[in-house]
Amino acid sequence: MIHYVRLPLEGTTNTRDLGGYSTKDGHSTKWQVFLRSDELVLLSDQDKKFLEDYGLKTIIDLRSETELSSRPNPYLNHDQIHYHNVSLFEKADPKSLATLTLDSLGGMYVDMLINHKNQIKTVMEIIAEASEGSILFHCAAGKDRTGVIAMLLLGLAKVRNRDIVSNYEVSHTNLKRNAYFKENKDTLSHLMGSTNTNMEDTLRYLYEHYPSIEAYLLDIGCTQEMLDKIKARFILKAQI
User: Fold this and answer.
1) pLDDT for 81
2) Top CATH class, 16-93+104-233
């Protein structure tokens, strides 16, 4: 399987597995551990069966209460899938994005890292304590809030920056097929890109202020035990 191939779902356009990436220390990331996605509101019954057969056990919805009320998550009260809502950054919801004037999306991602540390810590706590199975995290587009969490997880596993950037860049291509963003392209098109410089700027900020992504996560209150649990879950050790 190739890293950037999306999962074959009809109701989403940007659902991807974070498995298969090589790490700086010779290991790789495991498949069917972390899935990044756009919103799930249009999932068909067949899509849901695919995800559940794929191993889905936990969902982390990064959207705001306003988004949830207008476009509810189909797994909100599921009896087998653990659902969590952590509103990561309310200005990243589609309606707010349409009113923002930003020099770059990278600036918004850095804002998340600086001013929304508690929310990021909460996401990491949920991941560290999640039951076995796949964890899917998503926002509306699966690009901005989702992109920041994907970057932190890949960075924690010591995936190279160029691969983290490549993982981010695919979103724009996938979102061209997304029905919601097709409908709102006139108001959102200026902020729907996933240009490499957005993620490069974010990574540059992190490495200018911290020796590693793990150091950033420790600084915001994550414990070493939490991070070790996440790494053990995500990293496939190379056979010696």
Assistant:
1) 97
2) alpha beta
